[in-house]
């Protein structure tokens, strides 16, 4: 109960007018950068860092944390309304969220996302309050082989559930991994597949592919569809009792899974969100609704990505090691303010740590208050017929991508991948595995190469270590079970066995 | 790209000459620099956020902003990847001659092209000023059975080559491991991570047997006993860690190996602008914030400006090439 006393002290610091103001500013800015596809929370914090020099570290860190978890709320809005994920962690939301919006249920999708995010944010902050030091220690058991196995499991499982065909899902995931090899090799610095073009040295940004496949691809696919999409009748601006009943468990499961995945250093909200989506689809009694506007497909990933944001602060605060790209920058900020991140931060800078934790309870509440009315407002935007929305959506896609690196080449990539995205939609290839293959490619490659270096080249390292072995086994089962089930189903009688491929 | 490849082929020696003559002219010019930034200044950091060089860049930024050393605002831009090659490449390709861009450079950006001839060399930027020298320490996990460097060294020598895995957080760490391996006569197996933070995480998790790194990222862990420092790669002990012996003391003949960190501007920037940035960076180096930062991180102040910095870099290049047995 010592933690609760410390937390009380934290609240008294976080509730001072100045800190409350910074908390609000943080979550507001986070919400904003989450909505914009080009700029993410890490870029926003890096940009703001110089402005906070010389100010109070507690207030600044409250603001940075607010930007971090606030962005997880904001990324949802464009995912649901126009199928353009604002952050990599909201890619999964855009699948069912956008389908809900088309059916006039954008308000319910945004509402449940806000409520789920609030519950998840609160549950995981509670986890951070009570369990940070032991959990952070346990997370260290994850080394390169475990991360590799986790990425493999995630990609395989996603490929297995995201389309009608496992093969297409796997192929899309592998295509994403291949795209990720473009640019400078993170291990040795050799440039690969740049075709002599300097702008490809940085590789293909995730945002380019996401905006193209989801945003542009969706617009093109809708334009070529035979019947014009009817104006969405905006009904049930807020989630109904039925929505709530269906979302309750996904929110709770998403919170727990998201928090645990977030705690692992190096993984973050993206992996958490798609693990939650896979889990909900697997556990659902009506998996056929996924991809067509299942509210569980919004509630699970949205809760999970928020929980992961709080989870990522666990290794940062308890051990002084970065839990994600964004916390690496916050860690840098701690050092800038003259603090020494490490296991002693909790004891030596207790006031600051507990004030930041307390501010997260407050920030999540602020975000809920901000987002529930906004859900209705945004949902009404869709009273405008989609045919009028398409040109501005294309403009947002291009401007968002351009703003990120001021690169016209990236805009051409959007055009090219947009055409591919349209083709993928047309022939029923899932886009999510490709995007996640690209996002996870560097981690996939680095952890594979690190593991094989550790093991002097033998792949047994993935079997000898219990956690890695369990994850790998799960990945094999994800592929094997549908295949075996398919084989069994395709030969009801021994006589016909020879015909089925 | 064709231009840059031709530049690369000029070779390190030739470009070092060009650089030093350029620096000499600057010193002769010595007049009040008639230039000031004309738009937002971009500070390019060719490393991911959170590492030692990123932090130094942020301290430089903090001092520039707090002490209002420039009339424009400052934007920090992380361009990580390829051991600094991406960031250097970005400045060389997209910011050539732009006096409103400055870039952080360090030993890694110098070593990367030695290891990988395709990477951009420091001859593609104009060095302005060095701030500090970082030392390297040998660390093991706090729970490790090795209490002293002698115990670890004896065990490494007793086992087959490459039995021991060490995590690294960047090119200079790899190089320090090379230095260590050569002195031992037994190869260490480097497991490469993208930052000092990830390298530290692997050590804390017990996934590697040890690591060699800069004190900066390990100080918090050292204080709590989560990691243990066994030896330092320099000629004298640290004042801050009087109990940690030098590797020479424990009988290992390692050269004095340190990492420099400084600031450059793009190549072919107007001499007046170079002079301007030298002035700004000298003020940064003299600031109490910088002095405190360097002291806090158990590093050594080493303000080296303009032509002297270029000459220093040429000497460092020779040392690194010698260590890697790859003559220029």
From TrEMBL, chain A:
The keyword Transmembrane applies. Residues 20-436 form the DUF112 domain. The keyword Membrane applies. The chain crosses the membrane at residues 20-49, 61-85, 106-132, 138-159, 166-184, 196-220, 256-279, 312-339, 351-369, 389-408, 467-489. Keywords: Membrane, Transmembrane, Transmembrane helix. This is Putative tricarboxylic transport membrane protein. It comes from Ancylobacter rudongensis. The lineage of its organism: Bacteria, Pseudomonadati, Pseudomonadota, Alphaproteobacteria, Hyphomicrobiales.
Automatic annotation (TrEMBL), chain B:
Gene3D superfamilies: Bordetella uptake gene, domain 1 (3.40.190.150), Periplasmic binding protein-like II (3.40.190.10). Signal peptide: none annotated. InterPro entries: BUG (IPR005064), Bug_dom1 (IPR042100), TAT_signal (IPR006311). Belongs to the UPF0065 (bug) family. This is Putative tricarboxylic transport membrane protein. It comes from Ancylobacter rudongensis.
